[in-house]
Amino acid sequence: MTVGTVHVLDLETGNLRSLSNALTKLGYEVKWVKKPSDGLDIAEILLFPGVGNFGHVVTELRNRGFVEPLRTYIASGRPIMAICVGLQAFFSGSTESPGVKGIGLIPAEVQKFNDSTKSVPHIGWNSAYVANVADEGLYGLRSDSKYYYVHSYRADVEAPLREGWTVAIGNYNGEEFVGAMCKDNVFATQFHPEKSGVAGLKVIQAFLQGNRVSKVPAPQTETLKRNIGLTKRVIACLDVRTNDDGDLVVTKGDQYDVREKGATTDVGGKVRNLGKPVEVAERYYLQGADEVTFLNITSFRNCPLVDTPMLDILKKTSETVFVPLTIGGGIRDVVDPDGTKISALDVASLYFRSGADKVSIGSDAVLAAEQFYAKGEELSGDTPLETISSAYGAQAVVVSVDPKRVYVSSKESTSHHVIKTAYPGPNGEEYVWYQCTIKGGRELRDLDVRQLVTAVEKMGAGEILLNCIDKDGTNSGFDLELINDVKSAVKVPVIASSGAGKPEHFLEVFEETTTDAALGAGMFHRNEYKVADVKNYLSGHGLLVRNDSQLAL
Ligand code: 1PR
Hints:
The protein is an alpha/beta fold.
């Protein structure tokens, strides 16, 4: 039994499965509108999701003949809700795509975030607070809630305010931007409500029910001030592989060795089985994980396209988990068993259509970086990283780094980028460089992490997942030296990974480094701690974290 029908513009530029799942969760039937004749004239409620590059989205909109029919729809007074690049399309243009005209409801240009003092893209959970308390509760928006943003370009609040729009403001390290805006029958959010947990679902629900101002408690000013800004992200990671019986299970390495220790008679030597991926992912979502990452750790051995269980896991997970999902493992140009060549872009597209928001590239990024340097730091434009990033936007591409510490007695003993370490090597070596590996640490490469992250940022990576083989599974805390060294080399966000064993390790990495996010795996899989334990601990020590546990649909 559905409560209503929603028409959704589908320009085929990105992952709409998550939005579809959110609408289904709220009890609505979805009608896709790929061209104006697909029901735009009879639509009673319209959603306009925009994913990826401004120019790509607006050009698709224009090429499919939507601009005038959209203007007619808006003039008819029927409700429309735009999301992310959909909001930006209402402006006159964007510096992301010079010369491409937007719909122009607001005579102003969308601009890039200032990346001189902060990571760009702006990825994570930030506020959308309505400056005028009288408008508090605009379509369910709460000043004490956080919403998931992933964008490099922002709309200034001045122009829409001047044009009579009600604006909910986000603030990224002092740079304000339009988090959401509303005028008459038009509502738009820069954040992704379908990926913003219960808080986001409540915004979609309020819009669909026409609750322009839903009663929510007006925040106390002090609470509001404390709550503004980007939170520290806590991510749960599921290393997934087929076990000895051929089932895809959540496993966990100890310095990348995922097999149980002990006599071969019992579980010794078998792949550690820590649960079913969909169930584990949902458990972490309900515990408050800000993102869930799946790493298919043996996919370098086979073609992901025949690895359909991973696609099924994504499809099932995205039906009930409404925070960003990242999938890694095997994202590269492949040849499937019958000899058909399949591009990395096709593999990534399949994952996006199955519910992934980001894809993570490991081994192939190392090989691409090696090519980059071999060609004198020239971009080839046809590597998997570059093709996926240009099609789906940098924010959809993560590079997963699997480094090993290499101790040296002096800077001069290697041409690689070394740091002086506070943790000397086995023979008292005071310097260390981080060697890149591929195939899950099985193959060492003559490339250091700083070379890798510098190259992949130029190729269009939007985020770095920074593992550390030496720390993986040790419960000894993150490699703080590695994280700070990488953060000093790139402007894109970094996710610290490997070594977390208790909530204190998350506080330590956020206080001792400038990491944008921190990831845990083993400590959650072994049920030693819940994600909520980490977030409550961080919040208790004054860090800004997302917590919508008090919300229910
Ligand atoms: O190379 O593009 O096919 O991608 C393979 C992906 O699988 C990469 O992201 C690589 O990091 C990952 N991977 C491959 N082998 C392993 C392994 O463990 N044998 N997982 C593996 C690496 C890193 C994190 C881990 C953290 C946190 N694991 O996923 O969970 O280290 O662990 P902890 O909190 O328990 O310490 P490609």
